[in-house]
Each structure stands twice: as C-alpha cells, then as structure tokens.
From TrEMBL:
Organism for this UniProt entry: Kutzneria albida DSM 43870
UniProt xrefs under InterPro entries: CDO_1 (IPR010300), RmlC-like_jellyroll (IPR014710), RmlC_Cupin_sf (IPR011051)
Pfam families cross-referenced by the UniProt entry: CDO_I (PF05995)
Annotated protein name in UniProt: Cysteine dioxygenase
SUPFAM superfamilies in the cross-refs: RmlC-like cupins (SSF51182)
Coiled-coil features, chain-numbered ranges: none
The UniProt record lists the keyword Oxidoreductase: yes
A molecular function GO annotation: ferrous iron binding
Length: 156
C-alpha cells in the first residue's frame, strides 16, 4: 500500500473546467455559436455570454483599438481565452515579483489562466479584435489591482 499525495487527486467538488483551452478553441472554430452576438461598442469593450454550463461560462468579447481592461484577477475563476480576429496584448503580473510579462496573443493563439492569475489585456493594434473566453465556474467580477514597483500586483 502507498500513500497518494493529496494534491495529485482532482477533487470531486472541483467546479472549474478541466480543459479550458480545448473549450475555447472548439467554440472559436464554430462561428455559428457566437457570430450573431458580436458587437463593437465605442464606449467600452463588448462582452456577451455565449453559453453557460454547470462548470463554466463562455464569453465573446469585441475590442476596438485602444480598448483594454485594467489590471485584474477573476475572483477565483480560472479558464482560458483565444483570439479569433486581430491581436491582443496581455500583461501578466505575478504576486511578489516586480514588473509584468508581455504576451502578444494573435489570431488562433490562446492563453490559459489559473485562479490566482493577474493580468491586463488590451487591443493595442489598429484593427478590431475578437476573443472567446471561458471562465470556470462563472465569470466572476474582476478584482482590480495596481502594480507596485517592488511587490508586483496589489489589490487596489
Ligand atoms: Fe482577465
């Protein structure tokens, strides 16, 4: 008999999606599921719920040039996003570490995030961008952060 370390066993009560990148890519590839929901709002980034299950939500987002989020986490949610048109700039901040890491996420590329993930996302290009996001178990309200020069992201 041997002991199984606790952190190697998936909890039966886990409610986050098991394969968020697979989910966003499948939804992104089937435009009939979301194209009719797409809008561009000149005031703020557009977001529309595509589908909701017991363990995750899929959201469509439309980004005009210059539109962006502030630095945030997802209130304990985890998930992934993929860009289906244009490009998004993602700045990831890690707790206890100064600075941010920039990822340019282009059409067809995806990023995955855990429950402690802090980032800021922007359309810094000259064309609109479209992205599909999965949040598990739900798209909780974004928790705002500021970037401390020594400690990295700190809740604001
Ligand atoms: Fe986010």
């Amino acid at each position: 008999m041997f002991a199984v370390p606790e952190n190697t066993v998936i909890s039966a009560v886990r409610t986050a999606p098991q394969q968020p990148t697979k989910i966003v890519r499948e939804v992104a590839a089937d435009r009939s599921r979301w194209a009719h929901l797409l809008r561009y709002d000149p005031v703020e980034r557009w977001a529309a719920l595509v589908e909701r299950t017991a363990t995750y939500e899929v959201w469509l987002m439309g980004w005009l040039p210059g539109q962006h989020t502030d630095l945030h986490d997802h209130g304990g949610a985890e998930g992934a996003f993929t860009v289906v048109s244009g490009a998004l700039s993602e700045r990831v901040a890690r707790r206890g570490q100064p600075g941010e890491v920039l990822h340019v996420v282009r059409t067809g590329q995806s990023r995955v995030f855990g429950p402690d993930y802090v980032h800021q996302v922007a359309n810094e290009g000259t064309d609109p961008a479209v992205s599909i996001h999965v949040f598990g178990p739900t798209r909780a309200p974004m928790v705002p952060y500021r970037l401390d020069p020594v400690d990295g992201p700190v809740q604001s």
